[in-house]
Amino acid sequence: MEKNLENSDWMKDAPKLVALRNKNPFNVPDGYFEESETNILNAIFIDNLKENYKSGFCIPQNYFENLPTQIESKIALDKLLALKKEDFTVPQNYFEEFESKLNARIGINEVKRKTKILRLWQSNIMRYASVACFVILSASGIYYYQNANIYIPQAQTTDFSNDQMLYDIDENVIIDNIEATTPSPKIISASDTEMENYILNNYSSTELVQELKQ
Question: Transmembrane region positions (predicted)?
Answer without folding.
Answer: 125-145
